[in-house]
Specification:
Layout lengths: L5 E5 L6 E5 L4 E6 L5 E6 L3 E6 L5 E7 L10 E4 L5 E4 L6 E5 L5 E5 L6 E6 L6 E6 L4 E5 L1 H11 L10
Antiparallel strand pairs: 1-2, 3-4, 4-5, 5-6, 7-8, 8-9, 9-10, 11-12, 12-13
Length: 162
Amino acid sequence: MCQETVILLVDRETKIQTLIEEEQTITSFSLSGDDNFLLVNLINQEIHLWNIRNDPKLVGTYKGHKRSRFLIRSCFGGLEQAFIASGSEDSQVYIWHRSTGDLLEALPGHSGTVNCVSWNPSNPHMLASASDDHTIRIWGLSKVNRKRKETYGNGACNGSSK
């Protein structure tokens, strides 16, 4: 089976196969560190978050980044993988809160398409981005974390589960 809108999940132990079906063409995907979630980048400028623990379920959608001609990748990151980051054709790095879907930041700095982002596995406050402007930028995210605390730190439960 080879379809641009389907991902086949295979449990290596049980050999059970499960399909994730999207309505749009899938351009890339990324697995969470705990293997329970899958980020799926779509051709229509959306990123979908799937819970793949048991029966796959769409649990989040992230919008705002730009993609029309190039492959753009996204990733999980930050403390307890609480953020989603993505490159964009408008030369910015986009960061969303994973649980709420809120766009927290659009980081300017590149002068070309940002096609790859990666969080530092040893420092959850550090993000790298690679661009067609032939640069790699390293971002310290204290500003994003501060904004998140101001927005969600009112003592009420924000819906995160860890």
